[in-house]
């Protein structure tokens, strides 16, 4: 029976949506165990919930201060930009609000310090912008943290640090890989003492991650491409974990998509980089990921479908109902859930079978460096950050 989008809905009172982050290392953790039971713990308990030899895989992408307020010339109207991807030092793609008056040749000014000219707009709603000088240096002084729209406040100085994970290294995301926000140095030290290794990869989170699923069959939804890079070192770490019988624990849905995009069978991955459009939903055959540490996600979202694909829809939604009843904090600055489906990835023969529930389109380059930027198939729908 084909799943319906309504099957992935749940009620969430507005007061459960976290507006500020808890201190690192202090979040609550709802454990969805392999037996089907649920346990209420703290994120600090994670090391004892995992096994020595397990491999924790994190996303080291860094969030850009990508939200800019510009003035249109002539006319002087304010236009909010969400920069999406750098094409060249002076050229970017961006979402714009309001964009109805922007045409090729329109000029936007940033605090009298830089001019941006609109070169064009794609069918995906992304504007191609060209500055009279490189734009990146102005982001630190004029850019705002691109908090998601359900955080109903302006960004604050503390968000510059708190909306980055401690793993953040490679600039390129317009939203944080939020499962990594729970970690602090003490938790990493406890994991090391438990002999749990940490592995890093990169997937730059774009607005397409939050693109809503429109009405119609779920199978017809298409994910916008996101850039990723998996190094030979990361592939080797996964291989060593398998050799010692360890499990692969993905920190966040972005990490899951990157790992499953480069899966080779028998629970292994290959190094590479490119763009992934992998849409993981119930029916997907997981080939690498054994467990998932994740936040609580929006109803009817691709992120919730991914979690349900691993943990089972009924089990996951029952856990969400418990989290609501127990006053867990939801979404980007909220609490966490550890999902253990209690099964290992299939062997190489199973991995080669037809994967129902999976659509992916991946372009890889073998050197595992982030691919050269090009126009990305983002969708503007539902992706613009809230107004100031």
What does this structure look like?
The structure is a single chain. The protein has nine helices and 22 strands. The protein is α+β, with helices and mostly antiparallel strands. It folds into two domains: 5-63 and 157-365, QueA-like (3-Layer(aba) Sandwich), CATH 3.40.1780; 67-142, QueA-like (Thrombin, subunit H). The radius of gyration is 21 Å and the shape is globular.
Task: Give descriptors for this structure.
388 residues, alpha+beta, QueA-like, Thrombin, subunit H, 2 domains, ten-stranded mixed β-sheet, six-stranded antiparallel barrel, 9 helices, 22 strands, globular, disordered C terminus
N-C termini distance: 44 Å
- How many beta strands in the DSSP annotation? 22
- Class per helix and strand makeup: alpha+beta
Give the fraction of residues assigned to helices. 10-25%
What is the number of helical segments per DSSP (H or I, 4+ residues)? 9
The major beta sheet can be summarized as: 10 strands, mixed
Task: Name the strands of the widest sheet in spatial order.
Answer: 2-1-20-19-14-3-12-13-17-22
Give the CATH topology of the largest domain. Answer: QueA-like
Oligomer: single chain
CATH level 1 name of the largest domain:
Alpha Beta
Question: Which SSEs are present, and which pair or pack?
Answer:
Elements (H helix, E strand, L loop, with lengths): L27 E5 L5 E5 L3 H4 L5 E5 L1 E3 L3 E7 L4 E11 L2 E7 L9 E4 L3 E8 L5 E5 L4 H7 L16 H4 L7 E4 L11 H9 L3 E7 L22 E5 L1 H12 L4 E4 L1 H9 L1 E3 L2 E2 L2 E5 L2 E2 L10 E5 L6 H10 L1 H13 L10 E4 L8 H4 L6 E2 L2 E4 L23
Parallel strand pairs: 1-20, 3-12, 3-14, 4-11, 14-19
Antiparallel strand pairs: 1-2, 5-6, 5-8, 6-7, 7-10, 8-9, 9-10, 12-13, 13-17, 15-16, 17-22, 18-21, 19-20
């Amino acid at each position: 029976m084909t799943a319906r989008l309504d099957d992935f809905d749940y009620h969430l009172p507005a007061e459960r949506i976290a507006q500020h982050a808890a201190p690192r290392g202090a979040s609550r953790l709802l454990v969805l165990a392999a037996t089907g039971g649920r346990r209420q713990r703290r994120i600090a308990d994670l090391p004892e919930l995992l096994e020595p030899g397990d491999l924790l895989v994190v996303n080291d992408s860094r969030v850009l201060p990508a939200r800019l307020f510009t003035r249109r010339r002539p006319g002087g109207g304010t236009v909010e930009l969400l920069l999406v991807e750098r094409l060249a030092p002076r050229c970017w793609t961006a979402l714009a609000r309001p964009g109805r008056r922007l045409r090729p040749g329109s000029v936007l000014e940033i605090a009298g310090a830089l001019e941006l000219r609109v070169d064009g707009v794609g069918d995906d709603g992304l504007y191609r912008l060209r500055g009279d000088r490189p734009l990146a240096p102005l982001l630190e002084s004029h850019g705002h943290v691109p908090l998601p729209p359900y955080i109903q406040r302006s960004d604050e100085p503390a968000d510059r640090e708190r909306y980055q994970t401690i793993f953040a290294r490679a600039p390129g995301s317009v939203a944080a890989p939020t499962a990594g926000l729970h970690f602090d140095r003490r938790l990493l030290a406890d994991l090391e003492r438990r002999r749990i290794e940490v592995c890093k990869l990169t997937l730059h989170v774009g607005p397409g991650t939050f693109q809503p699923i429109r009405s119609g069959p779920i199978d017809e939804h298409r994910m916008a491409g996101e850039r990723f890079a998996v190094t030979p070192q990361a592939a080797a770490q996964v291989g060593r974990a398998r050799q010692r019988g360890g499990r692969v624990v993905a920190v966040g849905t972005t990490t899951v998509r990157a790992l499953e995009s480069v899966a080779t069978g028998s629970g292994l991955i290959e190094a590479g980089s490119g763009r992934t459009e992998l849409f993981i939903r119930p029916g997907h055959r997981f080939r690498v990921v054994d467990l998932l540490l994740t936040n609580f996600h929006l109803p009817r979202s691709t992120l919730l479908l991914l979690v349900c694909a691993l943990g089972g829809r009924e089990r996951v939604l029952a856990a969400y109902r418990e989290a609501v009843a127990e006053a867990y904090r939801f979404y980007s600055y909220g609490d966490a859930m550890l999902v253990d489906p209690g099964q290992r990835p299939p062997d190489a023969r199973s991995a080669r079978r037809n994967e129902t529930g999976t659509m992916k389109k991946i372009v890889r380059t073998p050197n595992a460096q982030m691919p050269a930027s090009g126009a990305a198939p983002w969708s503007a729908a539902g992706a613009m950050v809230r107004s100031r």
